[in-house]
Design brief:
This protein is 76% helix and 7% strand. It has 123 residues and is mainly alpha-helical. Pfam families: Phage_holin_4_2 (PF04020).
């Protein structure tokens, strides 16, 4: 049940990023919600599996930059999820530039934190 809530929260955050950030679009799906749900599923799986490893590996740089490098890790995970979704399913994110991905990762982080706070999920 916790994964389904995490997936829904991520889908809401991805939808907000697509709506707010220029240079981020959903591609390949007939209905945009299908592409958002599919990409949110891939992003949730990447966040559960690869994110802890990258956080440990980037810990020295994150400490030196007082946590700012954590945003770069989130951006890298966004690129990985977009690459997987586009390669495996032909549907997902189109990222125009690193700046777009960076702003989208910030938007996704903020919206996820807000929605998790509303839902009461501590993920």
């Amino acid at each position: 049940m916790n994964f389904i809530i995490r997936w829904i929260v991520t889908a809401i955050a991805v939808a907000a990023a697509v709506w707010i950030v220029p240079g981020i679009d959903i591609i390949g799906a007939d209905a945009s919600w299908v592409g958002i749900a599919l990409f949110a599923l891939i992003l949730s799986l990447v966040n559960m599996s690869i994110k802890p490893i990258l956080q440990v590996l980037s810990l020295p740089v994150t400490v030196l930059t007082l946590g700012i490098f954590y945003l770069v890790v989130n951006t890298l995970l966004l690129y990985i999820a977009a690459w997987l979704a586009n390669g495996l399913f032909g549907a997902g994110f189109y990222i125009a530039s690193f700046g777009s991905a960076f702003v989208a990762s910030i938007v996704i982080s903020i919206v996820s934190a807000l929605v998790n706070g509303l839902v009461g999920n501590d993920a």
